Amino acid sequence: MLSLKISGLTKVYLNGTTALDQVSFSAQPGEGIVLLGANGSGKSTLLRCILGLETATSGDICIGNWQISQLNSQQLRQMRSQLGMVFQKFHLVGSLSAFHNVLHGALGRSTSPRYWFPATAPEIERKRAMECLDRVNLTHFAQQRADTLSGGQQQRVAIARTLMQNPKLILVDEPVASLDPQAGKEVMDLLWSIVREQRLTVICTLHQLALAREYGDRIIGLRDGKIQMDTTVNYLQDRDLTMLYEPEFGVRCSELGIREIST
Ligand SMILES: Nc1ncnc2c1ncn2[C@@H]1O[C@H](COP(=O)(O)OP(=O)(O)OP(=O)(O)O)[C@@H](O)[C@H]1O
Ligand SMILES: [Mg+2]
């Protein structure tokens, strides 16, 4: 399990856009955080900074004992191998089988060319890839080309590939945005059951407030790159959510289903 501590994180892109402005929070090992915010509020930038794919303009991120701003490229690779990432777009290699895509999750552990192909990968890794596919209930689709699977199945393959990495912290960016409600619910159920059974720390961006309430332990809301709200789901207020979305976009709470999801 890995802890995460973000202190005064600011990200100004080269074009002058301030995507993150003094963001600070800590995530405890095993905590499930849902990140909410309107389009452009900085959610993906935050995840990319945690992954070390964007360099912070100021502030810092500590993951376990790693202080990201101090890492050289080799240490950064080592740190990233502990992090799993699930995206809205599944980023599978469409022409390869589900099994082959999952096997590639082991590449974070070894860059040996042996790991690139099922025929040459070590037996233990091939066995593990099948176990990961089994965990997402896709054993029967192991040899099917990824681009012939449904969206929900492709996202499950992507989750299996992440599992193959054996991550300690998972970053998830709009995992169900491309899926219909039923497939989206199945993917969230699966993802969260894995997170819970392995006691992983997860940070997940969502636009579906009902899902945020259902799955998040804690909700962090960003607005214009600043933390506007940081609360456990039990204390989540409709007006906090309104503040996140309404001023810029004029989106009414009722349209977002906030009443509907109130407890
Ligand atoms: N590479 C970049 N160069 C310049 N500006 C960028 C870059 N990436 C993101 N931005 C800007 O930073 C801000 C935050 O973008 P980001 O993608 O983090 O938002 P988001 O909350 O993930 O939005 P969405 O909900 O639409 O995915 C936006 O104003 C965006 O235009
Ligand atoms: Mg985004």
UniProtKB/TrEMBL annotation:
Keywords for this protein: ATP-binding, Cell membrane, Membrane, Nucleotide-binding, Phosphonate transport, Translocase, Transport
Domain of life: Bacteria
GO molecular function per UniProt: ABC-type phosphonate transporter activity; ATP binding; ATP hydrolysis activity
GO annotations of cellular component type: membrane
InterPro entries named in the record: AAA+_ATPase (IPR003593), ABC_transporter-like_ATP-bd (IPR003439), ABC_transporter-like_CS (IPR017871), ABC_transpr_PhnC (IPR012693), MetN_ABC_transporter-like (IPR050086), P-loop_NTPase (IPR027417)
Keyword Coiled coil: no
Family annotation (SMART domains): AAA
Membrane-traversing stretches: none
ABC transporter domain ranges (all copies): 4-249
Record-linked NCBIfam families: ABC_phnC
Protein name, UniProt field: Phosphonate ABC transporter PhnC, ATP-binding protein
Organism whose genome encodes this protein: Crocosphaera chwakensis CCY0110
